[in-house]
Amino acid sequence: MSASNVSVDVATFFPKIEGNLTKIVWEHAVNSKEKLDNALVSVNIMMLEADVTLGILNGTSNNNTPIPIMAHPPASESNLSLDDFLNTVIQRNVTKGIKLDFKSIDAFNKSKPILEKFRNNTKFPVFLNADILPGPVNANTTAVDAKAFVSQAMEFPEYTLSVGWTTRYGTKDNVTEGQYTEQQIQNMINILKEQKVTQPITYPVRAGLAANSMKVIKSLMENSSFTSNVTLTVWSSEGDKVDAEKLSTLIRDIGVKKVYIDVPQDLMNKLYLSGASSVMVASITLAVSLLTGLLSTIL
Prior knowledge:
It is a single chain. This protein has eleven helices and ten strands. It is of the alpha/beta class.
């Protein structure tokens, strides 16, 4: 593949963020024509996350043959196919990147020819995502076949490999405590080393769990030197219990040039990622004003 066909990394594609990946704005579940149209015209949205599963494309006559569509299980029908999704993003020629979340190895297998079809025109960031290992807390969702997904995603070395763990956490599962274990982290590193991965990698980690797992998450990043570029993608569902202070510390320790934040706005508002939070700055400013006023009175 020639250099002109290589997907661009996020920091280069969005120069206005000045390398600070926490400034990337995400849009979730872009799984319909309507959501895709809205996301593409939004000036704020930068990365489009969409789910790929096998199912039926509405309005087509060939309803007996499942194809890659944009839908989150248990949904198995959509008015948007993966083919149409990619074609639309390319044709609109807007400054957006994409993250494709594959829900099964079969969905990825059938998507590969479509990815290959549009490969030379995806001159924007592309993430290939799957939950490939079981994670906290005793997660029972079936993970995508790890070796099969990683080895086949490596056929697209210009794309970012986004690989994470299944989770059981939050209001839906009535789980409010938990963390990533050393073994879960090591299992991920082992898989990627065994497959000799060298392309860019991002690890999606659930915010509430990651905040309680600072040591092992840092270990994950430190032991991923086998890849050319490693980042973390911190995500959260609505209603997840998250220690915002611990999460802020983790993000600052790893560095804003290495961490994407894809969380609800109310949690985003609680994070302080510079040396001092806005509340601290306001308090300092008020204190200085009061002290200045006091001194002027005394003098």
